[in-house]
Amino acid sequence: MKHKISKLKIKSGKDANKMLIRKLVRNFAEFGRVKTTETKAKFLKSQLESFAHSALSYNEAVKNIMLPFFITEKKVLAFVDLAKKHSKNGTGSGIVRIRKHGLRFGDAAPIAEVVWTHAEEVKEKAKKPKKEASEKVETSKTEEK
User: Fold this and answer.
1) How far is residue 48's CA from residue 79's CA, in Å, rounded to a whole number?
2) Could you say which of 35, 55, 120, 129 would form a disulfide bridge with 83 (CB–CB 3.0 to 4.6 Å)?
3) 84-128: per-residue pLDDT in tens?
4) Short-list 37, 55, 54, CA closest to 98
5) CA neighbours within 13 Å on the CB side: how many for 45?
6) Tens digit of pLDDT for each residue in 48-68?
């Protein structure tokens, strides 16, 4: 037993853990959020932080590292674009966060959700103000009367 060493462990075995992380990474890339246990969320966060950091300097080597996780090159490029969009400070760190959701009903396992850190700010920038269009409609209605 090694004292004072805190390592995260999932007791499924090395190959099963790799496949679990690949599945979680794919789901996060597709949906933008994943709800799972806290231990799995910590594994996923470290993997996503690593991918986000390498996505900022995207090249052929980075693509080859990410391909086993995302399967197609199109999905790798989509994740790289998302990582660049959500990276506020330009380092790739702090790009995802873990929100805790309490305990699961059946077995009291701690549940957490992994989400983009700056997702709300990116959505607000993408929205365009529609006030001008609604004002034009209102003025045309008053002119008709």
Assistant:
1) 10
2) 55
3) 888 877 776 788 999 999 999 999 999 999 999 876 665 666 666
4) 37
5) 22
6) 999 999 998 899 999 999 999
User: pLDDT confidence of 27, banded at 50, 70, 90?
Assistant: very high
Residue type, 126: A
* Three-state SS letters, the chain: CCCCCCCCCCCCCHHHHHHHHHHHHHHHHHHCEEEEEHHHHHHHHHHHHHHHHHHCCCCHHHHHHHHHHHCCHHHHHHHHHHHHHHCCCCCCCCCEEEEEEEECCCCCCEEEEEEECCHHHHHHHHCCCCHHHHHHHHHHHHHHC
Residues 11 and 120: their CA atoms lie apart, in Å, by: 35
Provide the edge-to-edge strand list for the sheet that holds 110-116: 33-37, 110-116, 96-103
Which domains does the chain show, CATH number per domain?
A: 14-144 (3.90.1030.10)
Measured on CA atoms in the order 68, 114, 91, 120, is the torsion positive or negative? positive
Predicted TM-score (pTM) of this structure: 0.74
